[in-house]
Amino acid sequence: MIRIQARSRRALCAALLSGTFGPAFAAAGIPTDKAELTQEVTLRCIYDMGEFGEDAVQACMRADLAAAEALTNYPPQAQGIVDRCFQAMWMRGYGTVQMCVEEDVKATSALAAYGTEHAATIRACRDKVGKQGPAKVQRCVETALGPAPTAPK
Question: Is the pTM of this model over 0.70?
Answer without folding.
Answer: yes
